[in-house]
Amino acid sequence: MCGIIGIASNKPVSSNIIQSLKRLEYRGYDSAGIATIGNGEIYEKKCIGRVDNLEKVLFKNPSKGILGIGHVRWATHGVPSQVNAHPHSSEQVSVVHNGIIENSNDLKKDLENKGYKFKSQTDTEVITFLLTDLLKDFDILNAIHKTLEKLHGSFALGIIFKKFNNIVVGARRGSPLAVGYGHEENYLGSDSYALKSMTNKITYLDDGDICVLSNNKVEFYNSKNIKINKEVLTLSDDKHITDKGDHKDFMSKEINEQHVTAQTCIKEYVDQLRQDINLYHFPIEPKDITKIILIGCGTAYHACVTAKYWFEELTNIPVEIDIASEFRYRKLKFDNKNLYVFVSQSGETADTYAALDLCKKNNVKTCAIVNVVESSIARTSDFVLPIHAGPEIGVASTKAFIGQMLVLYLLVLKMSEVRKEISQTDYVNKISELKKLPSLIKDVLKCQDQVQVIAKDFLKAKGAMFLGRGLSFPIALEGALKLKELSYLHAEGYPAGEMKHGPLALIEEGLPVVVLAPKDKYFEKTISNMQEVIARGGKVILITNESTNIISENVRFTLEIPKTDDYLTPFLMTIPLQLLAYHVASLKNCDIDKPRNLAKSVTVE
Ligand code: F6R
Q: Rounded to two decimals, what is the model's pTM?
């Protein structure tokens, strides 16, 4: 995937642009370039391959300039080559571009008729010449607007001008773009990771927005060329790693910030105006994918199990799930029409990495869903989808699980849309429901006091069971895993319908059994399974979004979560289970952030 950086400063910028481009390396790219303005000239340097190569070029022949743009390119129009690398410059302007200009051939013909000579095979160069042409007759803002009006397709742009040598301009339609605010300098970036090394104050552009950055000012204009104000957000940056805020431990902080995790992730991927998901350049054309294989360990594996249900419900793609430590040693039939998706918070888990390596050796296409974008798994995969959860310090994965599920859900929706397996109306409705998720998570987080009371019941228990069907089954697995790793209490997660085939024998007087029963197509069946547990003395903790229709006199506790789209319920179900594990462990005085025998990043087999 391509990446953009822009800096407007009062000191030389080229080395900062290079460092920021390095932060975009996780995206996968084939060439890199930079353009700066100095001494009234545009200095453009580009090369094929890594940003390191570009750095060497600049080392030998430095670029002057206190403002500039940089780019890493993942070829779409035109082969990977130096000439096709961005920026694309004329005498007057230099442009970097993410996205695809669909009408570039027609625009190119018009511009060639006017005498413009194209050097590259890219769609981007038409933007350079269109703007150069319009600048002859219009002021800068009107020239930009008129240029954008002529473009069909998607773009995030970074532009510098020879004549206006104190500004960097950004524009967005369809592809993400953000502005960062620094001390006597301001930044443009295609994602917040690229900007994070320089600032934690950012503004995301919406579709149609244009931004004009100088070293001491940022202005925004909407698609009607009207000046607008935009919200400045504070990213939870790496400085907060050692800061628990008002929380007793990191896990509590991480559980309680999950609405922010969801909000950030949605902002990164969901186009706010167009009701669309910004996911492009899949390593295999979605229509050609014959199977998806989802691979992970522990909690990440549970996110894969959840995604299997979504893929099956919303697409026609067959799906397999695999635990990485099993996948890596099996006798597998690799197929280059399959997409292998690796899910990992750390991006360093040895088994997951080994499974990925096996795929690479078998020349199949891979996708990584990770939190740490600089990680080995991200760097090795063909396609990377960051979960944008920010650093997770508590050993038990919480907000990363929400982030993993969220990105997987976005991937499912987008694949379904591209393959025309979901109607446009359903797609748009699902996106608007998704936008409500952060505030619903915030509501569920209010159940802390109730969960604290429920947790007391687990203190004398020999163990516990977590039951669910359909999308609640993986969440039952996750609830059991959280409880065992944090409180050292034996816990089993089971599909509720499987109880009669053995586990029912475990039910005895007083055994805590958490039943996940949202009002979905499994509701009545799960409630019957719950009655079977009650009849044998199980102490049921029911989590549901439909308590009114349940005869619940024998249910010990009922915890009600808000109603939402059935596909989003797993996110809300997860929260009380994390809190339950947290409070049981806390009452037992366990080391919450560092449970015994466990490590945050499992880099050994
Ligand atoms: C459980 C937990 C682990 C990890 C697993 C994979 O709370 O944190 O089960 O999910 O070790 O780690 P990553 O996601 O870093 O690959």
A: 0.74
